[in-house]
UniProtKB/TrEMBL annotation:
<feature type="domain" description="Protein CotJB">
    <location>
        <begin position="7"/>
        <end position="82"/>
    </location>
</feature>
<dbReference type="Pfam" id="PF12652">
    <property type="entry name" value="CotJB"/>
</dbReference>
<protein>
    <submittedName>
        <fullName>CotJB protein</fullName>
    </submittedName>
</protein>
<dbReference type="InterPro" id="IPR016571">
    <property type="entry name" value="Spore_coat_assembly_CotJB"/>
</dbReference>
<dbReference type="InterPro" id="IPR024207">
    <property type="entry name" value="CotJB_dom"/>
</dbReference>
Amino acid sequence: MDGQRLSLLKKIMALEFTCVDFNLYLDTHPEDYRALAEYNAASEALLAAKKEYENLYGPLTNYGSTPSPQAWRWIDEPWPWETTF
């Protein structure tokens, strides 16, 4: 796997962790608008990173979130969870 692809996957994983962490925090601190702004920024960055990855390498999930404008690329290897770090 090339370095750019691996770097982008690591960025996506970090942003997903950040969003989950903010989500849990906001469940108990719903009036923390600074945290909400940080969550929204991380969420937007995550969507952008996923879009970039999928435009370059194909879908991250097998249904529902990304149309397949070319050939059916979901079967291309390696799949995101088969990546070695």
